[in-house]
Each structure stands twice: as C-alpha cells, then as structure tokens.
C-alpha cells in the first residue's frame, strides 16, 4: 500500500511540475541548454569612434544527447538598453574565400535570468547534434556607451571618456576559454581595470586568457581614455521622399544635429581655433560627409538663415559625396539645424514587381558618415491615386499611413510613415515600399490645368464680348 501511495504521489508531483514549467515557458519557446558549452570565445571591442562595435567569435559544442537548434547570447541590462543592432552568421571557408551565412536573432522572453540579463536567441540553420561543434560570429553595436569624464572641458582640453564592460564574457553557458581585446583611438589611456592576466600595448588592451567560468559570470572593468573623434548625434531626422511618375524622385531631409561629447565651458575664441584647430578644439568638428545616391542633381543645403555655400559635391555614376560645413564649428553640447535636399532619376529607384505592383527601393538610415540617429522618421509620399501601400524592412520599425496635400491635389497623397529609434550606419540598407497605381491618374493634374486655362480664357472672351453699357436714347 505504501509503494502504491508513493508511486501515486510521484505522479502527482510530476504532473504539478509539468504544469509549472508549461506556465513559465510556453510551447515553442526554448531556454539555454546546460548541455551546450562554449569551447572558446574571442571578443574584440572597437572604441575608435563614438559608436562602440563589438565582434564576437564563439566556438560552441553540444556535449549532451539531444540536438540544439538555438544558441543564446546574454547582455547586461545596460548593454541591452543601448543595443542598436545585432547580427550573427556562420562562417564557411578560410581567409579570402570565407563566406558568411546570416542567422536570425530574436529577443527571448526569459525573465528569470540572473542579474536581469537579457537573452537573444540565434537560430541555427541546421541543429547542432550531440558531440558536434559550430563557429558563430556575432556583431553588435552599442550607442551612448562612452561617458565623457570630465563632463565639461574648455576649448584647449582633450576629451576623456569612460567605457564600462566585463573582462569575462557574460554568457548563459559554461565558457571553457575566452579572451578579449579592446582597441582605443590613441595610446593615451588614463587608467584601466586590471584583471589577471591583463596586457597593455599601444592602443590595445588584452584581457585573458580566462578559463572555466560558470554561466552568467562577470568581472566589471572600467577604461578611461582619450577620444577626440567627433561625437555627432542627430537627435531627430525627418526625411521626405516624394515620388513623381513624371520622372523624378525628390528627397528633403531635416536635421537636428548635436555634439554629444563633453560639454564646452568657458569662452570660445575663433582666432585661437583657426590658428591651431588641432589643439584649440581637438574634440570639435566643423564638417561632415554625406553619402548621397549616384546621379544626384539639384542639391541644396540651407538652414533657418538661408543657403549655406560652404559645401562641396562630388558625384559620378557610382556614388555621390556631399561635404558640408555648418556655419560654426560644433563643440560639446552645441547644436545645429539644417536641411539637405536633392533629386534623383526615378528609374534608378522605382521598379515594377512581377504581380504588377510598383515599388520604391531606397536606402534607410542617415547618409552622414559615422553618425548616430536617436530618432528617424521617413515619409514616402506616393502619387495621388495610389492604393494598397505596404513597407518591407529588414528590421523592426513603427509604421503607419497619413495623408499629404500638395499642389493640385484633390483627395490627397497616401504617405507611408516609418519611424525608428537608435539608428546606426549599419542600418543603411535598402527598404521597399509597394503600392498599386493606375497610370490614368497621371493625366489628372494636366487635365486640371488645361481645364482651368480653358475656363479662364473663356471667361475673358465672354467678358470682352459682353456690352454692359446703358443703351443710348
């Protein structure tokens, strides 16, 4: 009787545990497997600009008996907050013949990770069978991760920043061997946390090799170094792309630019700046480079005062570069607002799909070189009469429709609005906007003009032939 009771109690316990696990992890959701371990991890951190780029190479082994279809990456809450983009791929081949197969990366819903760590799952093309190994390469970019210290500097002082990280890779798996390299823009490093073993040579700091660390283990480090590179941040970018089936594509971009480095204190001396700009204003910048589409024409660059003549355009059939200079150099905390506009041939960007739909193929992101965008809004103004609009992007973004009225519009033009925050240069990839359009609507505006002119002259003729004088007695 006792044995039967024991068996019955065990079954009930198993049933309760099954219900609990099902409620915590819904069907179709996987969690990091304890059978997977990282044999070797190499992490390279690039701090040479205002945007932090991290390259991660992982050699993963499945030491269990069941297959693993996902590999998980862990990020601290601070890193997850400033994470702009993350990419993963499977390398094939060696050196120059190496090819990369992109992998899907998604944020998981696991909420009980230690220390509030955020997990991202990398979906493998082929499941990792028992005893097999695979190499996964990851690139992720962090924004607003360099903290100026001191927070305020004078015109003649260099800019120093803090960078915080972990010397040991934060991972949900057991890490057998790992190493990290940190590259700074110059060899002027004020201080850095030492974790045995640590080596510093020139512009590179090496942490490791570390061995046999348990899951979710971290070792905080802080690096204080000089970084006088520009810290341009576009707080808001609004791009208007107007499609005209008469042969042109008009683009207008509104910029709210800011220097996000250490704030400038004291008095600005233009005389000292022009005499020795590399010393009296090393952390400032006075020009930016914008990469525009090829065959661009009718380019203008202006602000609230008017046109700015300090710009240089270089264009050909492969690329166009616009070098712009604001009216004054930008120091830390200073802002500038301006507008860039241009036109490009319609046939370079508007195509027709096999099912008869028209679609615009244009570049997302900011054309300014090495610039972070806090918030971007792209408005694609379709021709009047367009129907069934839809946008296709390689990443997530908010999108909705609105109406825009221009000259001679009757019902308004459908406008596809796309919004995204925390945009980096790696977001400069093509996106598409599909819509249906009947060419008969192209005749609407010419017919309106012809009708208006006809009615005007008819009224003039009628007025001239009309005798409104009183009859003579």
Keyword list:
473 residues; mainly beta; Immunoglobulin-like; 2 domains; ten-stranded mixed beta sheet; seven-stranded mixed beta sheet; 48% strand; disordered N terminus
Q: With helices defined by DSSP (H or I, 4 residues minimum), what is the helix count?
A: 4
Q: Quick one: biggest sheet?
A: 10 strands, mixed
Return the CATH topology of the largest domain: Immunoglobulin-like
Instruction: Tell me the count of domains.
Output: 2
Count of strand segments: 30
How far is the first residue's CA from the last residue's CA? 135 Å
Structure description:
- By secondary structure, this protein is mainly beta.
- It has 2 domains: 30-226, Sandwich (Immunoglobulin-like), CATH 2.60.40.1730; 232-445, Sandwich (Immunoglobulin-like).
- Helix content is 12%, strand content 48%.
- It has 4 helices and 30 strands.
- A 10-stranded mixed sheet has the order 3-6-5-4-7-2-1-11-14-13. Strands 20-23-17-16-26-29-28 form a 7-stranded mixed sheet, with no helix packed on it.
- A hairpin with a 6-residue loop joins strand 4 (83-92) and strand 5 (99-107).
- The N and C termini lie far apart (135 Å).
